[in-house]
Amino acid sequence: MLDLQRFAGCLWGQAWIIVVATICAVLNQSSSATTTEENDRGTENSSYMSEEGCPRWEKKPLVPLLSVGGRIYHLDPNVTVLPNGLFENITVYHLQISHTEIETVQEHAFSGLEFTLDSLSLVNSKLKDIPQGSLNKLVTLRTLDFDSNLITSVESYALYGLLITSLNLQNNQIALLTEYAFGGLENTLEELILINNKLKQFPLNALRRLRNLKTLRLVWNEIEDIPDDGFTRFTSLQRVDLSSNKIKMLDESSFVTMPRLTSLSLYMNRLTTLNDTVFVYLRELESLDFNRIEVIEAEALQSLANLQHLNIQGNKMLEVDDILSRYPSSLRSLQLTHNEIVTMNANSLLGQNKLEILWLNFNKIKRLQPEIFRDLVEVQKLYLDHNSISVIEGGTFSGLRQMLYLNLEHNNLNHLNVDMFHGADKLEELYISHNRIMDIEPQTFQTLKNLKILHIAHNQIYVIRKYMFEGNLPLKELVLSNTMAEEVEAGSFL
């Protein structure tokens, strides 16, 4: 049997191809039938072989068998054209061509795949435009990927004739989408990926006829504005990612075209303020993130009754007012990491009785009072690490009866008392390393009947007292490294 790697290496010079067969035995049998037997017959079939002993494309296809998918990658750099007739007599459902110098796809390059090919990827290559002529007969194609090419524009009806549901054009140089760029895809396209291109405006004109579009990713463009033409409504659009653009301002009309959104990302833009009308039309929104915001007006989130995940990390907030407490909320997770928050007041989290995870780490909070968390009856994980907390008033966590995880590392605590964790009956993991703890009162941990993991390393506990860990603590992991301990009382860990 001819070595498969040597056999494949003959494709267009030194191209490498891997074809995944439905049944490996079929691959072996087919290779044997078209190579070894011909060699055994000597010169009778020499017309099928090149001087190097490689199959000639014009005589024999590479793999005359049913296959589920194929990959062609790292072609000879001199190969710039994908030629006609390459896949005749081959059944391929998924085809990937990557890391090539291909600039041109001939009109009949995919002949033979018209009624079988389901997904096509021609990525990391040199295409400058969409090869419409070679695609329009692929009637079964549903996924098309031109990631990392040199495409600068999508001309009118460039994809006409296709019935694709997913189109990936990320990592190109697209600055222009004509009004009918997606003509023909009005009823089929559900996912459009335009990440890392050069669009300067939200492409409303090009998209407005895509009535079934559900997901739109426009990350890493140069978009400054989201226009409203007064009549377009994306009634199927659910997920929009506009992160890492240049949006400076949003108003009431910014999202009026997207009334069914459930997920919106505005992360890493140039917004500094959110006024109280920005999200007024997004009544079904469930997930929202943004950053660099300095001011969130009091009623900016008033219409988001279905919001479940809110990410406000990396902003410049100094305090959390009552922006979350004015209206009933369905929040499940809230991220306030990496702000400048110094103060949490009594109304900051008022009414958040469905919240399960809260991130308040990497801020400048100094003091915790019981009123802050009193409504968080469903919170399971609370992150308060990397703050400046020096005081935790008694009963602060008494309302957190479902809390399993609490992180207070990298703060300024110097004393732990019996009231500090009162009420946190279900707590299983407690992290208080990297503080300044010198003293732990008796019975501080003994009330935590479910505590399994306790990290208290990097503190200033000079003596490990017997009463600190005595009793029936169910600990499975206790970390006391670098606590400066000079003495351990007998029976401390019994």
Write the SSE topology.
Layout: H1 4-8, E1 16-21, H2 24-40, E2 67-73, E3 81-82, E4 94-98, E5 104-105, E6 119-123, H3 132-135, E7 143-145, E8 153-154, E9 166-168, E10 176-177, E11 191-193, H4 204-207, E12 215-217, E13 239-241, E14 263-266, E15 273-274, E16 287-290, E17 295-296, E18 309-311, E19 319-320, E20 333-335, E21 343-344, E22 357-359, E23 367-368, E24 381-383, E25 391-392, E26 405-407, E27 415-416, E28 429-431, E29 439-440, E30 453-455, E31 463-464, H5 466-469, E32 477-479, E33 487-488
Parallel strand pairs: 2-4, 3-5, 4-6, 6-7, 7-9, 8-10, 9-11, 11-12, 12-13, 13-14, 14-16, 15-17, 16-18, 18-20, 19-21, 20-22, 22-24, 23-25, 24-26, 26-28, 27-29, 28-30, 30-32, 31-33
Antiparallel strand pairs: 1-2
Keywords:
494 residues; disordered N terminus; 33 strands; two-stranded parallel sheet; mainly beta
Strand content: 15-25%
The main sheet comes to: 19 strands, mixed
Rg, Å, rounded: 31 Å
What's the helix count? 5
Seen as an oligomer or otherwise, the chain set is: single chain
How far apart are the first and last residues' alpha carbons, in Å? Answer: 70 Å
Q: Low-confidence runs (pLDDT<50, min 5 residues)?
A: 1-68
Secondary-structure class: mainly beta
Mean pLDDT: 84
Instruction: Give the number of DSSP strands.
Output: 33
| Amount of helix | under 10%
Based on Cα principal axes, name the global outline.
elongated
